[in-house]
User: What shape does this take?
Amino acid sequence: MSRDIHLTVAAVIEQDGRFLCVEEVADGALRINQPAGHLEPGESMIDAVIRETLEETARDFEPEALLGIYRWRHPTQGSTYVRVAFAGRASPARRGRSLDAGVVRAVWLDFEELAARTGEHRSPLVMRCVEDHRAGRRYPLDLLRDLAAAPT
Assistant: This one.
């Protein structure tokens, strides 16, 4: 069983009562997720969520608040995921921009639609982030601190 720990970021974007989601192929099936992904070396968490949202939805993302930090262990793989989720706004989609490999489409779903499709969620993190967003959980972005590398 894996002991891997993955640091990921996710964007929770609500507009007119609907949440921006992606339908992506994962574990051999079509899954629903927020725009989300792994941090790249040297990248801040805010830069990562902006990049991932653009890559997966063709939209620019403006983080406004930290939504929460979540830990989830995959039940069959054994990997642990630590997700830093952000609430914010997205621009209209950029025309002609392709989506990341594996992402089928970006789609707006309301709470009821998302709740009805929980069996298709990539993980329980999807619904928990939406529930926390609806509950008004918001924390200042300056809770996150990126420290420069120590001089050698």
